[in-house]
What we know:
Largest sheet: none
Number of helices: 9
Mean pLDDT: 86
Shape: globular
Amino acid sequence: MAGMGQLMITDTILSFMWVWAGVIIRIIMQSFPYNDHVSEFFKSCLSLLNMFLFAYLVKLTNGGAYNPIPVFTNAINGDFVTFLFNIARIPFQVFGSIMGVRLVLEIFPEIWGGPELIINLNQGALTEGLLTFTQVLIAQGLDRNIRSGFFRKTWINSVLKLALHILGSDLTGGCMNPAAVVGWAYALGVHKTKEHIVVYWFAPIEATLLAVWTFRLLVRRPKPEKQKKQKTN
């Protein structure tokens, strides 16, 4: 139980830090002297460094998380106890994000870092769903095929996330992180709206379920070594 409580506290802190990391990148880019392609390239480099940093923090904390999507993926792939524990972690991530946004708006009230839904509800849900589906499907493939090699795995995953974010940034924000979105939505009082719940919660969660089931259908789990030895004998 102590380990579970420690992990929930870690989730809260990492979610808080993730909000602030995005705001710091935004502040840096506001003071950047160049525009267009140079600024976009520099912003992409900062985003990749940020994702590498948080990937290292996740490893350092033995599974801490700032995004409900990988936590929900682990919940689906585990047993019933694992499912309940991972689901119980999500409110702590939401709380950390809300506290992070509140502090940001207290110190920098002119900064707004939340996503904006440009397209209609159905298109937004489909966009976030497809982005999340792609992310989860490839992430499971990386977990299966690259068990060691932190740098290579993190590099591929970070570039993938950045590419998906760019694809969806002008449509829904390309978030793929319900906890981070709800922090900004709560600050505006729109966290209970249909658009927020459907696009930034239901769509990613359903896409995660579909990605996990698709991965199970397409990729067979490796058989245990004992069974292989019995067959060879």
